[in-house]
Amino acid sequence: MTDDVDFPPGDGPTSGISVTLTAGTLQAIRERVGKRGVSAYLEKAAQRQIERDNLDELIADFDEMHGPADPAAVAAKRARLTGGDSNAGVAA
Fold first, then answer.
1. Which of 47, 40, 61 is nearest to 7 (CA)?
2. With contact defined as beta carbons under 8 Å apart, do 41 and 33 qualify?
3. Of 22, 13, 11, 1, which Cα lies nearest the Cα of 46?
């Protein structure tokens, strides 16, 4: 592995590691992608998790600066995007 170069997720040379998974998780992955697709599946899953972590950090920074989002405003915007009910997902 090249420690002196920074690569974004999904870029750079591959590097082998050992990963421990529960039998059920590994079985579910293999049923989806076969034995030869496990590494690619885990690579994509790790990339998605990194994206989610980065988004969570961005939201936390925004909330710290501006306060949490108003649930009613979020529901209204979600309804505009999805054509759904603006009260869906808002706790009573």
1. 47
2. yes
3. 11
pTM score, whole prediction: 0.71
6's CB contacts (< 8 A; 6+ apart) are none
Residue listed under structure tokens 């936390």: 60
For residue 42, give every residue at least 6 positions away whose Cβ sits within 8 Å of its Cβ, in sequence order, or none: 19, 29
At 5, list the tokens.
């170069």
86 contacts: CB under 8 Å, gap ≥ 6: 72, 75, 76, 78, 79
CB of 79 closer than 8 Å to CB of 86: yes
Structure token pair of residue 44: 């994509």
For residue range 29-84, list pLDDT tens digits in order: 999 999 999 999 999 999 999 999 999 999 999 999 999 999 999 999 999 999 87
CA–CA separation, 27 and 31 (whole Å): 6
